[in-house]
Design brief:
Layout: H1 17-32, H2 38-44, H3 49-52, H4 54-77, H5 79-99, H6 103-113, H7 117-130, H8 133-165, H9 168-188, H10 200-205, H11 207-211, H12 214-244, H13 249-256, H14 258-277, H15 279-304, H16 308-336, H17 341-366, H18 374-402
Length: 404
Amino acid sequence: MTTMPDVRFNRTTPPHIITLILLTGVSAMSMNIFLPSLPAMTTYFDTEYRLMQLSVAIYLAMNAVLQIFLGPLADRFGRRPVLLASCVVFTLASIGCVYAPTIEIFLVFRMFQAVIVAGMVLGRAVVRDMYPQDQAASMIGYVTMGMAIVPMISPALGGLLDEAFGWQANFWALALAGAAVLALTWIDLGETGTATGVSLRDQVRQYPELLTSHRFWGYCAAAAFSSGAFFAYVGGAPFVGSVVFGLDPSTLGLLFGAPAVGYLFGNWISGRYSVRFGINKMILWGSAIALLGPVLSLISFATIGGSAYSFFGFMMFVGFGNGMVLPNATSGQLSVRPHLAGTASGLGGALMIGGGAAQSALAGTLLTPGSGAWPLLWMMLLTGTLAVASILYTMRRERIVTGG
């Protein structure tokens, strides 16, 4: 079993595991805490659900764009200054969301909130700075296992805050979380990367070194397709819960966190066994488990009509599988060219989140009051199948290259 170094909170030493967990956790919290409030926010801004749901898709799309640049920036200037700047912008943008007078202005501030993805991107890069491939996969699993607790409870918290104080309370909570993690990062996170001094343009020019690697593409595809099922869920589940099943915000928030429960245990499996079995087997097993979620849910809807509890309950398989796939696929991406770990993390994350943004928006478009949950489940089945195919291709390529 791999453990983090025993360090005290000190801004001149490598960060404590708590700092890494919270940096990645706030990024996840920002994505889903307000989802139970989408119907109420639709009414508040006097708009359509499809437009309000863009607050998810546009956030993910901006995540993808930012990750293309955050990695190279961190490789040039170091992890610490980029993380501190992102926390400042995120906190201010969260306050802007509270006071936005129109849906258009709200969506602009929502885009600025996406900068907190630096915590997720560079948190992984910090781990890779400190450990070799299989150990890094194990550590990323432990870090994201702790991170999984945040998205597991944040929708439930968001639903309760909505019912007690209104939807704005969710964004006040995000502003406070941003300020807290800013202070913790300043106090604890010492620089782990070596600033290269290479210009951003030269960093981007190194992308072909990654993009011509079959292994990099294989790991990116496995991560993108496996997580694609989850992002489709993020875009469609609030509609399914509130419109198809008629759930109130607090109940929807509680049930919405079901995949995070599975993600927690999948991350524990990654942290415990990635070194023993290797990243490829963990990705294959995880993508197969994630595929069970939509398969079982489709069977349930086709035979007994489905229910809110079966729909959300089967989504735990999606979370469990992603908890195994993502830490190992990420470690694989970062290990293809270790000297470009920050760039690889940003580019790989951009490809994954960009695809997720498209699927989230598509799920919101396809779901109508008469469609039920079927379009969402078929989307999840397709992306889950492609994830299995991607890692099988990567394993085959590796056997050809190594002659195994």
